[in-house]
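LAB NOTEBOOK - FOLDING QUEUE
OPERATOR: T.R.
BATCH SIZE: 2
PURPOSE: Compare the predicted C-alpha cell outputs for two unrelated chains run back to back under identical settings.
PRIORITY: normal
REVIEWER: second-year student, initials M.K.

ITEM 1
FIELD SEQUENCE / FIELD STRUCTURE:
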Amino acid sequence: MGLKVYEGLPASGKTKAIISEMDRRRSFGDRVMLVLSNEHEELTRRPNVREGGMMGCRDSTKKFPIDRVIGTAEACELLAEQVAGTLIAFDEAQYFNPKIVPAWLDASERGVDILVGTPSQMQLQALNGAQYDLKKLEVMCSCQKRNATRVMYSKDLTYPAHLCDRCYHARMKDEEKKLLKLVQESEPFPGELHTYQPFFGIDMYGWKLVRNDCPARFDIILDAVARSDSVQEKLSDPVKQPAFIDLGCCSGFFSHGMAEQGFRSHGVDVAEHFILWANQVAFSKGQAIDYKCQDLLDFLRTSDKTYDVVSTFATVQWVMDQRGYEAGIECFQRIFEKTSSICIVEMGYTTEDIYRMKIKDRPSEIDRQWVMNLMESFGKFSQIEFHPAGEGGIWRDIFVGFKKKPMARGRVDTILKNVSTSFLQSKKIQVRKLIKKIESLVRRKSGPEKTADFDLFPLTGMLPVSKGDGYWDDRWVGPRFVAKLKPVQEFHKFRLEGWRPEDFPSASVSISLEGQEICSKEVEGGFFVIEAQAQFPSRDELSLEILTSYSTSPTNDSRDLSFVIKSLDFL
C-alpha cells in the first residue's frame, strides 16, 4: 500500500475510511498503530485524545484505540523503528509539523504502510513530486446538483451541512438574516435596529451601534500583534497558533476577527444572549471559537490558561460596580498574569457621567493616570503604549501593554517582506489591507499635544503645503481648521468623510476655499459625508477652511475637538 493520504471536507468519511483499513489489517494479524499529535490544543483538549483513548467518527460503529499521542520529533523516531508490514495511521495529521513528511516517505520506501488523514497544505507541498496515493473524498451538496465545497454548522462543530458555493452563500445570507432578526427582537433594544457592537464580517448597514468604533479598536490590536516578535513567531509556525481572548466579548467581534487572522480564539461574557449570538456566527462560519458565558472574576479565578493576546474593553468597571473595587483590582492582576505577550485595556472612567455615581467604594477617581499606574505596578510590562480617545475614531483611551519590547512603529512592512511561509503569505494579504487603515497609528508621534503635519490620512487631488492649523495627528480637528493645499489635478467636486461621537449634538460644518464658502451642512453624531461642487481657476495653492459650530474638550485633554477626518477628496 505504501503511503496513502486522505483529503476531503469535514464529515466526508476520511476517519471512517482510516478506521476501516486499520480494522481490516488488524484482522489479518498485522501490527497496526494509531498516532495523534500532542502539539495543538485543538486536539489535546479533547478528552478522548490520550493513549488508550478511543478515536471515533460520525459513524458510531467505527472506533479504534489510540496508541500514541506524541510530537513530530518523537513520531519521526517511531517511524524509523518500524519494520515492513507495519501499518501506522496519522489522523488529524495537520497538527504535526511538515518535518514529518520525509519520515513518512522514508518509512513507506522500507515497506511500512502509512495512512494520513487531513494533511495540512504545507505537508501536501512537501509531498509534491513524491509517490503516494491521494484519496480525495467527495460529498454531494444538499441540493444534490453539485459536489460540496463548503461546510456549515448549526449547533456545534460536529455535524455539518455540506454545501456547494452557490448554496453556501445563499444559506449564509439566510443565517445572517435570522441572526439580525433575533438581535432586533432582543434586549436591550427590542424592535429597533440597534445593538451594542457589530458582528465581524456581517453587513449591518442601517443599524445603530452603541460601539461603532470596533474597527478602530481592532486596528490597534493588529498593530500591536504585527510588532510583537513572540506572537509573529507563533503565527509563522506551521502548527502552533497564538491564543487570543476577549474578556467581556459581547457578541464576539474581536474574537471572530482574531480567529480570521489565524489565532486560536476565546471569548468570555456574562450576558447569555451575547454568547448565543457569538456562537451562532462562529458555527455558521465553521470557526472553532471557545465562548464561555461566565462572570469575569469567576472565570479568571477558575481558569489556569494563559493567552498570547488579551483584550478587555470597558468591562472591569462593571465588575467593580457589582462586586466592589477590590474585585476589579483582582481582575486586573489575574488578567496581567494570564497575558503572555500583549494586553489591551480600555477602562470606563469614573469621571464619565455614566460611571460617576458607580464604584462607590473607590478610594480615588479611576482615570487615565489610574490605569497607567495600575499597569506599571502590576502588569510586568516592558513597554506600555497609550492611544488617546479620538485617535482613529476610538471612543475611550486604550492602553497596550507588551511583556517584551515591541518593534518600533512603522516597521510592519518589514515584517511582511520577510514572510516566507505559505500560511503567513495568505495572512499577509489581509494584514496589508488593514495597514492602509492604521498608517496613522504606525507613524504616530508620542502624543497629540501640538498641531501636526496634514498628511496622515487619505487626501485625493491635493498635496499639503503647510501644517494644518487646528489639526492633530490622531485626525481630530478643532472648530476652525485651516490648511494650504496644492492641486495636483483639475477638480470639480469636493467630498469630506468624517466621524463624531454618537452623543455629540448636531452641528453645522462649513467648508470654504480661498475664502469662498462652497458648502455648509448640518451633521449628527456618527459617520457623515459632505459633498459639493467645487471648481476654481488653476493656481499653485488654495486655502482650505473648515468651520464647525460645536466642539468640546474631553476629560484630561486640553484640545478643543470637533470631529475626526476620515478622508478628504478633490475629484
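ITEM 2
FIELD SEQUENCE / FIELD STRUCTURE:
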Amino acid sequence: MTRALDRVIDALRERDCRPRASGGSWSARCPAHEDRTPSLSLRQIEGQALIYCHAGCATADVMTALDLVMADLFDEPTVGARYAYTDRTGAPSRTVHRTPDKRFRQSGNTRSTPQLYRLPQVVAAVAAGVTVYLVEGEKDVHALEAVGAVATTSPMGATNFTKVDVTELTGAQVVVVPDVDEAGARYLRDVLTALEGVAASVAVARPRVGKDAADHVAAGYGLDDLVPDAVPQVGRQARITWACDIPIRPVVWAWTDNDQGRIPAGSLSIATGREGSGKSTFGTWLAAQITRGTLPGNLHGNPRRVLYVAVEDSWEHTLAPRLLAAGADLSMVGRFDVVEDPDEQVTLSLPADNRLLEQSIREHNVALVVLDPLMSLISDRLDTHRTRDVRTALDPLVRLADRTSCLLLGIAHFNKGAGTDPSLLITGSGAFKDVPRSVLGFVRDTDAEDGSRVMTQTKNSLGRDDLPSLKYLIENTEIATDQGPAHVGRICWRGESDRTAQDILRDAGSTPEDRDERADAASWLRDYLTNRGGESPVNDVKKSGAAAGFNMDALKRAKGKAGVRSRKTGLSGGWVWALDLGATPRREHQGCEGSGEPEATPFAPLVLPSEPPEASPITTGPCTRCGQLCRRYGADGSPLCRSCEATGAA
C-alpha cells in the first residue's frame, strides 16, 4: 500500500517543487503560489500525510495544484481513517471511522461508557509520570505521537469529552492543546472541569501556527515549540452584582389569558396530568398556535418555529397528525433528535446535550421546545426522585430558556398518589414542581356527562395565582393521509370551568354522599351570597350555614364549586366571602382551535340583582385601533382594547 506522503512527494517532484527530507519531515516549494524558497512542510503520520503552507495557502488549493484530491492525503483514499479504541488491556472496544470528506461513524461496542483513545499507552504514561497530551481528535493524537508524545482524545469529537471515563488520568501530568477557535475554548472548559480533582496537574498550550496540533506538527514544529498558555478559571467562583446595576424588566408572557399571564416566555413550564388527560395534546395545541402566530401573548402575529422532543409517541401515527389537526404549520415544527453517527439515533440526555439544544434554538430562531415526557429525557445517571439530581438537570435548563428567550414546556405524568394538588402529584422529586415558573394541571372530569376535562394553573410564580380554570374537550378528528384516514384527538376549549383540577381530584376520592353534600352546600352558598349583594362576612356565613345544616368544613369544600373567593376588607377589617363575578366563560377559549367549526354559545354571566344584564356577550378580536387582542366591545360595536376605549371616551 502506497503511503499518502509518498504519493504527494511524487507529485511534487513531477512539478519540480524540489521536495527534500529533513529528519522525519519534508519541505518543498508550494505549487499553489509563486514560491522561490521552500514554504511547504510535509509529514507522514499514522494513516495519512500532513501538509502545511507557511505562506497561507489552503491545503485544498495545494492538492488541486498537484492534480490530487483531499482523499489522497490518506493512505487508503477510498476509505479514509480508522481509529481503534481499546480498554486498558488492549482489548478492542469501538472503532471510529473517518471518511476523506470528514464524516464520522462508530462501530463495535458503542453503548458502553466511552474510553480515552490509546488507553494502554495513557495508563503506562500515568504510572511512569510521563506527560499526557489531551487534544481534540485522533488526527491530532497521531500528529503528536509522530514527535514523541503520549496523546489521547475522546471518540466522536470534542463535544463528547464530558461523556468519557477520565479516571485513568488520576494523578496524571496533563497538557491540553485545544483548537484555536470557539469550539476549542469550550472543549478546554470541559476538560478542565472533568479533570478537576483528578489529574495531578493540568497545563494549557497552543500550537505555534495553524489551528490545531496537527497543523503545528505539519509545519515542522515539535513538543518544545508549543506555546504555553494561561489556564482559564473554571468551576465555582464568587461573583457579586449590585442590585442597582441589574436592569429591571417587566415579565414577557408567551401566553396571556384576558390580559393576565399564564406562561412566561424564556422559562421552563410543566404540563402535568394522568394518562389520557390531554396534556400532550395541549403541547401540540400550543405548538400549533406559535407556528401560526395566533397565541395571545408576545408572539401574537409573529409565527415562530417549534422543536418537539418526543420519546413515547410516534411521529407518523400520533404527533404529526395531532399537529395537523391543531392547525400547525408543519414546516415550522422540527423533530429534534440526537445522533452519534448517521446510523445511530439516541435520546436527548439532559443536561449533557444542553449545548446541542441551545445551538439548535439559536440557529433556527425557535420560540418553543416541547419535552415529552420531561422525565425520560433526564440522564440515566441522575435519580429523578432525588431533589439534588433533578435540579442538576433542570436548573441549567432554566438558564438556557432565559438566555434564549425560548419557552420550554415539559410534559409530566402524575404519580399513583391520591392527592388533590396536581403540582404535588408530579412523578419524581418535588423539584419538578419547585423549579418551573408555571405548572398547569390537566384532569378528566369523571362527573361530566360530555367527557370534558379541566386545566388549572397550580403555579404561576411571575403572575396571578388565582387564574380561572379552563374547560376543554378532546374531540376525535379525522386526518386524510395517502394511505387512508387517521384519527387523532385535538383540544377544543369550552370556556371557564366552575370546577378546578383540585375539586375534581378531591371528588374522585370522595363518596357519592360527599359529592351530594358538596353540591348542596355550593348551591346554598351561591344563593346566600347573591341575596346579600354578592358578599358576606365569614362569621355571618358560618352562622347562617349552620342554621341551614352545613358546617364550616362543608362550606369551605364547596367554595371552589360555588365560585367564591375570600378577601379582607381593609387593613383592619374582617374577612368576607364574595362571589367571583369575573369567572364567566370567554369566547377566546371556545371552539376547537384550527377546526373552523362554530364556537359554543357562552352561558350568561352571573348578574347580581342590583346590576343590569349585559347587552351582549363578551367576545375577542384584534383591537381596531392598535391591533392588540382584546375581549371588550366599544360603544360602536367594534372590538377595542381597554386602553383605546378609555382614550376614545376621553
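REVIEWER COMMENT (ITEM 2): Residues 253-443 form a domain with the Rossmann fold fold (CATH 3.40.50.300).
FOLLOW-UP: none requested
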